[in-house]
DNA sequence: GCCTTGCTGCGAATCGCTTGCAATAGCGAT
DNA sequence: ATCGCTATTGCAAGCGATTCGCAGCAAGGC
């Protein structure tokens, strides 16, 4: 109800591959769609929709925020991108490369750790054991305090 | 930076005790403040600010949403209340009684499990072990899929 | 009871995101 | 190349949650 259905990640190598997939899925590939893709491939870290709309700080043509959201949503349905919500900030979008990265955020200093699925298996196992839930930290990250902040703040 | 500083929970028995604490902290206790407190003590589950502003469905006098937020914030700083963010919905506020409850939300059906601190210790231990983080699911809950949804959805 | 000033109430603003709609532009067919 | 259908865009307005500004009211110390 809250989260979009998850499909197997496609791990696209470059924007052109995604363009092919988009067309295969019956979509048109507009300038805005290409720009959003270019931005996602150019960004090293998850980016907010607004940064994409601003052309990633001038490197790319600016486009309408609305359009960015619509493209991101489409790409997300295709399994090409995913987004995380860190705290109360805007969602951050990134390409799904090989398996979804999961996130752990420090509420003290804001540090974000990216963990791969495997590293979190013990955690997931503990949750499964205790609650029967299959935990996921891809869309909503885990929150806590990093070692330094935990020591400092008690 | 994201989350309010956490203090030791005070576990107030009734509204009057909180009133005393409010005054001790140099606050005035207005009608709105009393009503917010009454609502929090009356509610069995975490409530949204708007429900409190609406007088909890007629049982209590209605008040200004702004005021509710301001009172909740004050009470939160005092360590009397805390709030959770479930998905993209409004924050849900509740009294801190004895140790903060932690939450696990099913992204499939929306079910929310309340777990006490102790039950989550194995999970916290696994996180500590793997990442050095001290995890907390009080303000931002853990997300995942409950047993039924996990089975159903794959 | 008086006076100070913290709180309230109301309005407007902000932030992240969605929706409505007419104009534009992909792209398959010609 | 060009045509035509309609998916997408751009712009404006809307929305839900929360915050801010400010004048007037009312807690509560004296």
Automatic annotation (TrEMBL), chains A, B:
PANTHER family: FERRIC UPTAKE REGULATION PROTEIN, ZINC UPTAKE REGULATION PROTEIN
Native organism: Conexibacter stalactiti
InterPro entries found in the cross-reference section: FUR (IPR002481), Fur_C (IPR043135), WH-like_DNA-bd_sf (IPR036388), WH_DNA-bd_sf (IPR036390)
Gene3D superfamilies with a match to the protein in the record: 3.30.1490.190, Winged helix-like DNA-binding domain superfamily/Winged helix DNA-binding domain (1.10.10.10)
Protein name: Transcriptional repressor
Stretches assigned to coiled coil: none
UniProt entry keywords in alphabetical sequence: DNA-binding, Repressor, Transcription, Transcription regulation, Zinc
Recorded superkingdom: Bacteria
SUPFAM superfamilies for the chain: Winged helix' DNA-binding domain (SSF46785)
Family to which this protein belongs: Belongs to the Fur family.
């Amino acid at each position: 109800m809250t989260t979009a259905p998850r499909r197997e990640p496609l791990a696209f190598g470059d924007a052109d591959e995604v363009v092919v997939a988009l067309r295969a899925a019956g979509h048109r590939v507009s300038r805005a769609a290409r720009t959003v893709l270019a931005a996602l491939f150019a960004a090293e870290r998850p980016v907010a929709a607004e940064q994409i709309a601003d052309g990633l700080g001038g490197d790319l043509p600016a486009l309408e925020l609305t359009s960015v959201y619509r493209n991101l949503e489409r790409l997300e349905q295709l399994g090409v991108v995913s987004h995380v919500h860190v705290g109360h900030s805007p969602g951050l979008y990134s390409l799904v490369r090989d398996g979804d990265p999961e996130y752990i955020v420090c509420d003290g200093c804001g540090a974000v750790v990216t963990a791969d699925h495997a590293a979190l298996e013990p955690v997931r196992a503990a949750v499964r054991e205790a609650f029967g839930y299959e935990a996921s930290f891809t869309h909503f990250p885990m929150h806590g305090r990093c070692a330094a902040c935990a020591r400092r703040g008690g």
